[in-house]
Amino acid sequence: MRRVFAATVAGALFGAGLVVSGMSNPNKVLNFLDPLGPWDPSLLLVMAAAVAVSFIGFRLVWRQRRPWCEADFQLPTASRPDRRLLVGAALFGLGWGLVGYCPGPALTALVIAPRDALWFVGAMLVGMLLQRWQSTRG
What we know:
By secondary structure, this protein is mostly helical. It has helices at residues 2-21, 26-32, 43-61, 83-99, 103-112, 114-136. The chain starts with a helix and ends with a helix.
């Protein structure tokens, strides 16, 4: 129950942050990504705030002996990026740059402007299912 509560609070806080920062508006994101067009640098402040909060958060978390909702910390074991990571990052960036959505803001946008986000979320879910199917094939 503690995990569900923590995930709900974290998700609600994240979603609220996306809405307040404008990240759930694809036009704001696309304007940030277009320095030769109607460039909107305001998302630089969002990124700077995210880095600052993450920096403080990681410092606080690493002082703990173990996480609040798990037995111990789960850290990645890979030390170098592999092909799957690079392809996934490229597809993520391509999708974000083309339509102005990434998964978190797209889900948040379903509440605000469902018609605009529905196509993206549908395509994202199909892509996730295709990836899962492909990875189980060997």
